[in-house]
Amino acid sequence: MNLLDVDGLTIRDTTGRVLVDDVSFQVRAGERAGLIGESGSGKSLTALAVTGLLPRGLTATGEIRLDGADMIRAPRGRGDVAAVVFQEPLTALDPLMTAGKQIAIPIRRFQGLRGTALRTAVADALDAVRLTDTERIAGSYPHQLSGGQRQRVAIAMALACRPRLLIADEPTTALDVTVQAEVLDLLNHVVTERETALLFITHDLPVAARVVQDTHVLRNGRIVESGPIARVIAEPGHPYTRTLVDSARRFDAALPRSRP
Questions:
Q1: pLDDT over 70 (residue 180)
Q2: Dihedral (CA of 141, 143, 148, 154) sign
Q3: Which of 42, 124, 167, 224 falls between 20 and 30 A from 132, CA-CA?
């Protein structure tokens, strides 16, 4: 059985306008899948529907099964199955709470730890996302951390739930190129080590190629192409996918090359 089954997902706003149109895909346990598309393509709304977190005023039809649970007819938090890392950690994290306390909340909830055991688990969670100065990081507020550190804290919070599916929604967009590469490497490491399924959402094909195996390309709320990401990049079948590939190649060609 698939860990996640999305079948005919359609999302409408209060006027009846269709934002996501008949989207279907699956994610197996341990699989790395991508949702790729420009802003407004419906990829983030799809992720919110999967976790039962659609904003008020939006309605979903079709079928979403997350570990067998019906996330459309009976939406509810499934932190033990799926957890989300959002695009901008400065807004996703609570500005009035230290990083350590924010990581402690899901650990206490899902693992039932208290006291010294909880503090040790928080330090271990920070160490797992390669934040070595764990005591300082745990005692810092989000604004006292760099963008890369905040995103690692957000990943640590998500992993603290011990989810079987990690949903990463544009997790590197707000980071510079060097930090972006470090976070992608971290995601690769943790999902491999923990055998966690990954649903990676981005507008950037080359970024997705670093972490996913199969991908689904969305445009105007519809999936226009699916397949192994290596094939999608090498032999794009849809004109929109070819546009994404060509844009990425032009950008890469425009980058300055260091001299040997």
A1: yes
A2: positive
A3: 167
| Sheet strands (E) in the chain | 4-12, 18-27, 32-36, 59-66, 69-70, 82-85, 165-169, 197-202, 214-219, 222-228
CB atoms within 10 A of CB 53: 12
β partners of residue 36: 202, 217
User: Pairing mode, if any, of strands 214-219 and 32-36?
Assistant: parallel
**Token pair belonging to 39:** 């802003």
- Helix (H/G/I), strand (E/B), else coil: 8: strand
Sign for the CA dihedral angle at 209, 211, 216, 220 comes to negative
CB-based contact 27:201 (threshold 8 Å): no
Q: Is the dihedral of CA 105, 91, 88, 153 positive or negative?
A: negative
Query: Could you tell me the end-to-end alpha-carbon distance of the chain, in angstroms, rounded to an integer?
Result: 51
Mean pLDDT over all residues of the chain?
Answer: 91
Q: Residue ranges per domain, the chain?
A: 91-162
> Where is 191: in which H helix or E strand?
helix 177-194
